[in-house]
Amino acid sequence: MLAVVDAALAVQAGYLLTLLVAGSRSVVLRNASTGPEQRLLVVVPAHDEESGLALTVAALLAQDYPRSLFEVVVVADNCTDRTAEVARDAGAQVWERTAHDDPGKGSALAWAVERALAEGGWHGVVVVDADCFATPGLLRAFALHLAAGADGVQARYDVSNPEASWSAALRYAGMALFNTVHLQGKAALGASAGLSGSGMCLGTDLLTAVPWSARSITEDLEQHALVVAAGRRIAFVADERVLSPMPVTRAQARGQEARWEAGRAQVARRHGLPLLLAGVRTRRRAAVVEGLDLRTLPHAAWAAAFAGAAAATLVTRDRRGAGLLAAAAAGETAYVLGGLRHVGA
After folding, report:
1. 218-255 pLDDT tens trace
2. Listed residue (16, 10, 17, 1) closest to 306, CA to CA
3. In angstroms, what CA-CA distances link 9 with 17, 82, 94, 275, 324?
4. Considering only Cβ atoms within 10 Å of each terminal Cβ, which end of the chain, N or C, has fewer?
5. Contact present, 26 and 184 (Cβ < 8 Å)
């Protein structure tokens, strides 16, 4: 059993290194024009987000993209504050949703996507969280990829306040590795990059084929599993991004991380093995990669497993296990340091 754990830790480190190398060699799609005109509906799900919402809307309305080709809609979801009023004053359209028996971002997105598809005329639906700031070229990059045939696109999702505290800095490092290095590497391997919840664009053809139905805590991860199961792929944009502030104390961050990890574990149990088996059976690389990816341990869990395996290996004096753990430690360290260097941390 210990040998299996040692080998699994080494394999995960090798997989992450593969993502880093592949992502660092990926080619960025660049073009001065967007090709065919892409009409984009930018959806901002907001539940009691009156503070800071105006800045989010302002950054979206100031996009370097023809104003006639996009609209910004704030979905005021079960709000009890001035979210709707603030959004209108900032220049956004407002869709108000009252469904106290069906709360949550996933449900709000499902409702908004259904309304957008019924309205018609859009080539893609963009999702930006209410506390995020979008870089000026975000919509142009999305339009370029949709025009090139992408089913959907995920932009880089970064922390805006890494200097605020050591806790925020750690979150910046973790998100940089997962939301940039990890996703860019998957896309470079020919798999589907993934969805990060904010800064994502889903083509209306994709949303018609795979309607938004995810309602879990990690609705982005769940929806992406459904996208891959349907044989579709998400592209990745590394040179445009959305930025969001993170909790500045460890106590605040711990609860957020616990919810995310619990949601990821739930999605992994439900979709990981079926995707892997389906990918092997149909020889679809994207499904195989996603199935394996869902089984990878978060860095904190990997570190805990490594510590336990190292202690057991030391007691048993297993030289082969010690070699595997040394390789795992070297690989994980190279991935973390190399990944942070890659993103310019």
Report:
1. 999 999 999 999 999 999 999 999 999 987 777 766 77
2. 10
3. 13, 49, 48, 21, 8
4. N
5. yes
